Amino acid sequence: MKRSRHKNGSPQNLEKKAKLSENENSAPIKDPVEAIDGILADLEIDSVELQHKARQLWASKITKDLKP
Question: Hey, CA dihedral for 55, 61, 62, 64, is it positive or negative?
């Protein structure tokens, strides 16, 4: 039987192993609301302005996808 030229198997297997090891290092999120609150804590805008900016971003992506 011919031996693989990759020492640890195919590149796809290595990619899967790398993704698994990345996930093992991260802590599970206990409360997603607190996680989002922590991420947004440094923003200097209020929730209404944040919603408007999110809507503008969404609308720009939608119109970009619709153009031929």
Answer: positive
